Amino acid sequence: MISRTSPSKIVLLIIDGLGGLPHPETGKTELESAKKPNLNRIARDSLCGLIDPVSPGITPGSAPGHLAIFGYDPVQYHIGRGVLEALGIDLELKPHDIAARGNFCTVDDKGIITHRRAGRISTDRNTVLCRLLSNITVEGAEISVLPVKEHRFVLILRGEGLSPELGDSDPQQIGQAPKKIEALSPQAQKTADIANEFVSRARNLLQGKTPANMVLLRGFSRRPHIPSISEIYKLKPAAIATYPMYRGLARLAGMKVLPGGESITDQLNGLHRHYAKYDFFFIHYKSTDARGEDGDFPAKVQAIEELDEALPGLLSLDPDVLIITGDHSTPATLAMHSWHPVPFMLKSKWCRPDDVTEFSERACLAGGMGRFPATEIMPLAMANALKLDKFGA
Amino acid sequence: MISRTSPSKIVLLIIDGLGGLPHPETGKTELESAKKPNLNRIARDSLCGLIDPVSPGITPGSAPGHLAIFGYDPVQYHIGRGVLEALGIDLELKPHDIAARGNFCTVDDKGIITHRRAGRISTDRNTVLCRLLSNITVEGAEISVLPVKEHRFVLILRGEGLSPELGDSDPQQIGQAPKKIEALSPQAQKTADIANEFVSRARNLLQGKTPANMVLLRGFSRRPHIPSISEIYKLKPAAIATYPMYRGLARLAGMKVLPGGESITDQLNGLHRHYAKYDFFFIHYKSTDARGEDGDFPAKVQAIEELDEALPGLLSLDPDVLIITGDHSTPATLAMHSWHPVPFMLKSKWCRPDDVTEFSERACLAGGMGRFPATEIMPLAMANALKLDKFGA
User: Fold this and answer.
1) CA–CA distance, A319 with A308 (Å, rounded to integer)
2) Which residues in chain A are contacts of B368 at CB distance < 8 A?
3) Between chain A and chain B, how many beta carbons pairs sit less than 8 Å apart?
4) Which residues pair with B155 in a beta bridge?
5) Is A16 helix (H, G, I), strand (E, B) or coil?
6) A32 in reach of chain B (CB within 8 A)
């Protein structure tokens, strides 16, 4: 490896769902509409561009979007639905734990699914039912059932010789019975038997608890082995994120998860407190994505403006390398993640600035990086931090 | 796969040989010289860019140029010369048929080639001679000899246990004797023997038929297995092309070939008639390439203008995704296919438009896609048609 340690510091700010689409009336995107003097000032001194998190046309989930920026091929390092759900409740999975995403659902007298989300029962009710299901014991695995939100839960199977190569019980539509969980390889048969036994006991325990009288399981998976950022880049990495799923993704990549706080100001205060102890910081800003998913254009604009106002708290540290980008686009007009490339900028003493004077989708297109794969960000960050040796003689 | 079906429609218009080079006097390319108000208006609302059909510097034949746009790696899916010639006469090859491109040629008393194209005999004469050669029977294969144009024909060998791994008999130069066809692998020996026997019998039958007194064979090949567009993208694809070779390429990719008509207006009328029944349409416009190959700059400009005038017939359908590009460049100044990247635009409700206001080589360079591989077009088309699910959790 050509990485080397040095005192320089890298700060990576991921603005979730940053990219957008033009408002039909103004023709301007959320980022183009926002007042953002700080972001624009940084852009003037930065190397700018647009990233493709996975590849053109592909809409990334949160996991591939982040892993790509952290330098991992998002197609090679696949995070299963069960593992992601576990990360989302700050659960530290052991390497051999099998996690599945669970739904409480409603079935009729004949066992046919009539509601896949049990009418979205309350999280309190969910918690009570998960406690009930946690009493289930099946030989061969230690079983945990942990509530998430509304109808969602995580099932964890822990034990020797288990395998995640299992099909779903969730047919993903109503009008059918839950499927029997199938072993997708011979060595997964034991785990399939355990999972099916769990479902059968759960059905019995939930009888009469309508609307939550049955469970659906999908996305059986195990934490992938990901070489840590310290191994690859010889960095001491830390993460400051308010949402559990992003803390979980950071933990997967080997980052130390620092206390997050509630607001971006809290997060930046945390950065100041821990600045001396680490040399790589991932800061996650969530509101932009949430407002985009709501389809609320003005609220997403406001979320960008709030971030911009907080930025002096970051700039005062004058990190050697500052990167600001997003994990994917979440245009308010689409109200969902999208495939559009995401604005990117990197400021360092050693970047070669371009003519971009505004941080926006259109302006970054003319930036020095042009359009490029997100997996190229980490080598670029390392180079600008003077933490990479020459390649070859 | 993350493709899903939906009612949205994709129209892909390929303007053959679209890209050009500046005229020495005006400094403007064919596309820049043409009056094309409709193409320019579409460009204003589109995501623009420049495609590399294969890779920078590589001049594509028609097959790789089209396959790349259809989403297939043109290096992996190689179409042999023989197969291409068969596609060019609307021949439906069976999966195991072996096709070779044939030339009638002239040899002297000693069997040395004096003219590789037999003085370009007429197509009528070719047809008579092919009928003569079709009488040849060799044990082990059913033989068909089909006229193409002037001195060109297709040889088809059909039978059990045949192999296309054969060398050429055509030395591609005069002053030599035709080569013996060699088996390039042990299992091709039987086929080599059959092919050599065919050549020997053809020589006998053609004695005295000077200038067409011998045949040359090259490009023995078999139809490659290409997963169909319906398999990969869950689309119902159709093609409207006036030239047989493009209909053949569309058929290879699993498209339904619709009646073409003579002019682009006929083709667009066909599109209207069949619009309800398919959700992906490939329309092929040939004249631009033909005029470029002629080296006729003004005629290529005029071909572009004719297309532009016909476009309202396409725009009236308001397809959910409209893509306009070319399979390669054919600059009139070069009078041949070239390696230059090709203008591209994609219009949809969900594309992120850029600042491009003209459809031309120079203008598209500043487009939102920049320069990109043609194989990325299909995922982009699918995304804009909202026919792709999110990748990863």
Assistant:
1) 17
2) 341, 365
3) 74
4) B100, B145
5) coil
6) no
What value of ipTM does the predicted structure carry? Answer: 0.87
Cβ-count burial B9-40 (b if 16+ within 10 Å, e if not): bbbbbbbbbbbbbbbeeeebbbbbbbebebbb
What is the number of other CB atoms lying within 10 angstroms of the CB of residue A119?
Answer: 15
Give the separation between CA B301 and CA A379, rounded to whole angstroms. Answer: 46
Read off the tokens for A243: 């949402």
Strands B10-15 and A370-373 turn out to be unpaired
For chain A, residues with pLDDT lower than 70 are 1
| Chain B residue with Cα closest to A51 | B369
Q: According to the model, what pLDDT value does residue B1 have?
A: 65
Q: Does A355 reach chain B within 8 Å, measured CB to CB?
A: no
CA dihedral A56, A61, A66, A71 (to 10 degrees): -50
Residues of A in contact with B376 (CB under 8 A): 55-57
Residues in CB range of B100: below 8 A, 6 or more apart? B81, B82, B154, B155, B157, B166, B195, B217, B218, B219, B220, B221
Predicted pLDDT of residue B314: 97
User: Does B35 touch chain A if contact means CB atoms closer than 8 Å?
Assistant: no
Rounded mean pLDDT of B140-145?
96
For residue B254, which of B274, B275, B225 has the smallest C-alpha distance?
B225
Confidence at residue A88, expressed as pLDDT on a 0 to 100 scale? 84
pLDDT in tens, B358-377: 999 999 999 999 999 999 99
| Secondary structure (3-state) at A223 | coil
Contacts 24+ apart (CB under 8 A), B200-204: B201/B136, B201/B138, B202/B133, B202/B136
For residue B261, what pLDDT is reported?
A: 82
The kind and range of the H/E element at B130 are helix B123-133
For residue A74 the two structure tokens come to: 């998002």
Q: Mapping DSSP to helix (H, G, I), strand (E, B) and coil, where does residue A35 land?
A: coil
**pLDDT tens digits along B229-242:** 999 999 999 999 98
List of chain B residues whose C-beta atoms are within 8 Å of the C-beta of residue A74? 391-392
Among A21, A44, A34, A112, residue whose Cα is nearest residue A298: A34
Q: Please report the pLDDT score of residue B180 as a whole number.
A: 97
| CB distance A118 to A104 below 8 Å | yes
Spell out which residues of chain B touch residue A81, defining contact as CB-CB under 8 Å. Answer: 393
Peptide bond into A211 cis (omega under 30): yes
The 10s digit of each residue's pLDDT in A34-52 is 999 999 999 999 999 999 9
Domains and CATH numbers, chain A: 10-79+226-384 (3.40.720.10), 83-221 (no CATH)
Backbone angles phi, psi at A343, to 5 degrees: -55, 145
Question: How far apart are the C-alpha atoms of A382 and A391, rounded to whole Å?
Answer: 13
Residues forming a β-bridge with B41: none
Cβ separation A57–B353 shorter than 8 A: no
| Closest-approach residue (CA) in chain B for A84 | B393
**Cα separation of B70 and B325, whole Å?**
12
B12 phi/psi in degrees, rounded to 5: -115, 110
For residue B194 the two structure tokens come to: 């059959």
**HSE of A171, CA atoms in CB hemisphere, 13 A:** 13
Let me know the angle formed at the C-alpha of B126 by B125 and B129, rounded to the nearest 5 degrees.
90
Question: Which range is least confidently modeled, A373-377, B11-15, B169-173, B297-301?
Answer: B169-173
A343 touches chain B (CB under 8 A): no
E-strand spans in A256-386?
A: 256-257, 280-285, 321-325, 342-348, 370-373
Mean of pLDDT values over B251-269: 92
| Look-up of token digits 């696949």 | A78
**Between A375 and B262, the higher pLDDT residue:** A375
User: What confidence category does residue B392 fall into, taking pLDDT thresholds of 50, 70 and 90?
Assistant: confident
